[in-house]
Specification:
With about 180 residues, the chain is of the alpha+beta class. Helix content is about 35%, strand content about 25%. The longest helix is centred in the first third of the chain and has 16 residues, at about 55-70. Pfam families: DUF1697.
C-alpha cells in the first residue's frame, strides 16, 4: 500500500458544498482506504491505498456526488510525488516567506500549446512555473489579490485544478511522515 494525499476542490467555502471532515473520513474508510486522516476543513486527506491515483480520484468524486449530491473535483498524489513537488519548488528556499508560496495541483498534464500560452502571461511581481501536473506560485502580495488564481490556471491550461498555500502543502507532508502509515 502507498501513502496518498487527496485534495478536494471548493468544499466548505462560504457555506457552500459543505462536507464535514468526519463524514468524509468515514466515507473513505468505507471505500476501503486505510489510515485515513483529514486536515483542515478545505478537504485534505491522507490515507493508504494500492489503487492508482486516477482511479482513486474517480471513486471519491463519484462517492461524494452520490452521498452529498454535488460534484467535487479531486486530485490525488502519492507521498513521493508530493515530496518531489516540495523539493522542486523553484521559489522555496531558506529565504522564502512561505506565506507568499502556493501550489496548484493539476488533474492532468496540460498540452504543450496551453502551457506555452499560459507561460506567455506576465503578472509581475507575481510569478509562476508550470511543472507537468503542478504550478508553483509566488505572490508578492496576498493570493486573493493575485491574478494567478486557480480559475486562471484551469481556464488557460484547460485542466481541472485545486490550489493550496505552501503551509498546507508542508503540513500534509509532515502529517504523511508522522502518521504510522505503511
Amino acid at each position: 500500500m502507498n501513502k496518498k494525499v487527496a485534495i478536494l476542490r471548493g468544499i466548505n467555502v462560504g457555506g457552500k458544498r459543505k462536507i464535514l471532515m468526519a463524514d468524509l473520513k468515514a466515507m473513505c474508510q468505507k471505500l476501503g482506504w486505510k489510515n485515513v486522516v483529514t486536515y483542515i476543513q478545505s478537504g485534505n486527506l491522507i490515507f493508504e491505498s494500492s489503487q492508482q491515483n486516477t482511479e482513486l480520484e474517480n471513486v471519491l468524486e463519484n462517492a461524494i456526488k452520490e452521498k452529498f449530491g454535488f460534484e467535487v473535483p479531486v486530485v490525488v498524489r502519492r507521498l513521493n510525488e508530493l515530496q518531489a513537488l516540495i523539493d522542486n519548488n523553484p521559489f522555496y528556499n531558506h529565504d522564502a516567506d512561505v506565506n507568499q508560496l502556493h501550489l496548484t495541483f493539476l488533474k492532468e498534464s496540460p498540452t504543450a500549446e496551453n502551457t506555452d500560452k499560459t507561460l506567455s502571461y506576465n503578472y509581475e511581481p507575481d510569478k509562476f512555473e508550470i511543472d507537468n501536473k503542478a504550478v508553483f506560485i509566488f505572490c508578492a502580495g496576498k493570493y486573493h489579490q493575485s491574478k494567478l488564481t486557480n480559475t486562471f490556471f484551469e481556464k488557460s491550461l484547460k485542466v481541472g485544478a485545486t490550489t493550496r498555500n505552501w503551509k498546507t502543502v508542508l503540513k500534509l507532508q509532515e502529517l504523511c511522515q508522522s502518521q504510522n502509515i505503511g
